[in-house]
Target: Transcriptional regulator
Amino acid sequence: MATKHELILRYIEGLAVGEKISVRQVAKALSVSEGTAYRAIKEAENQKLVNTIERVGTIRIEKKKKENIERLTFAEVLNIVDGLVIGGRGGLHKTLTKFVIGAMQLDDMMRYIDAGSLLIVGNRLKAHETALLAGAAVLVTGGFDASDEVKKLADELELPVISTSYDTFTVATMLNRAIYDQLIEKEILLVEDILTPLADTITLSAKDQVTHFHEVNDRTSHTGYPVVEKKGKLVGVITSRDAIGKMDDELIEKVMTRHPITVTGKTSVASAGHSMIWEGIDLLPVVSDAGLLAGIISRQDVLKALQMTQRQPQQGETIDDIVKNQMKSIPEQPHTVEFTVIPQMTNQFGSLSYGALTTLLTEAGNRAIKMRKRGESVPENMSLYFIKNVELGSIVVVIPKILHMSRRFVKVDFDILTEGDLVAKAMIMYQLFER
Model:
């Protein structure tokens, strides 16, 4: 028998693409509590069945396969601009490749329009028809309507014609923000992108003997294996450290690590990597919500994935990217970093924000550690003290000093200066990657 959670997910899957949903609506339709409905909607969002858009709400979207570039569907555009479909409803599931603002002569406009485009224009009826014939959808701004001929043509071609009350500039801004957010989200690598799936994962049973572990280990040279029950439920992990010195006829359930640290497919690779470093483990089982094994990731998988993403072209800058781009090394003092305080790095009072300075210090410390000892590191804890406010436009110098370095930890002290005056002090403890 299906659980309430599963019933809600099936209900959401049955909704038409582009339809808005809410916690209250789902709770009322299926006679469940709003808390249950909320959790199920969040799960649907994780499964890419719905999308929550700022100022619009949660809408049903078409579940898309991962692509090199995520694109908006016309159904998502409809909800972003709070619009009304006046023709071509059958094409709402299609994706747009680009949008074109129709603020030019028709002949000039058509040079930029091709199949899959979205023309954003006011009440220029001829432009509506010409865009549809070129394979583009139309977004009519200012609350204007389209002609009956255009509506009929849109239905025949299954290309949406959407009307919105917003002006052209506002619509373009809203769509640009939505696309930009998706590009940033695309760059966040998830465990499901790199895991070794269950079909390719070697698993052991709790009732197997340690001698079987040694046989499998000699054959594969892996460092560890997940231990599962018959139904696929994860019950533990066994590694060489667990088996060393144990009798060959001892059962794996007696020596394995129970309740191992696990991740889900939606965990970010960065988070999984940090867990491995902090806990000193080389293997992480990936489980479903029901606790069933879905696959595994190793420390080598994480390192390869992070190296790969660093070589990818930049698509959408996060605040961290903006902050790091301001950092410059001083040639005479390779450990020292200089940066200029720009508006994105300030708080509501116009001075350097705590968050921006934290990012700068973390990166400056990482650079200093790499110069001393090749390898990666992650901050474990930080103490930061502001002595003076650092104003917008100030040139700030960060001087990291490595106080102590062991095999696993590095302690770094920081002086933060502006025009030679000390404005802040910090201390960060880093944990080193084991290679």
About this structure: The two ends are 48 Å apart (CA to CA). The longest strand covers residues 421-432.
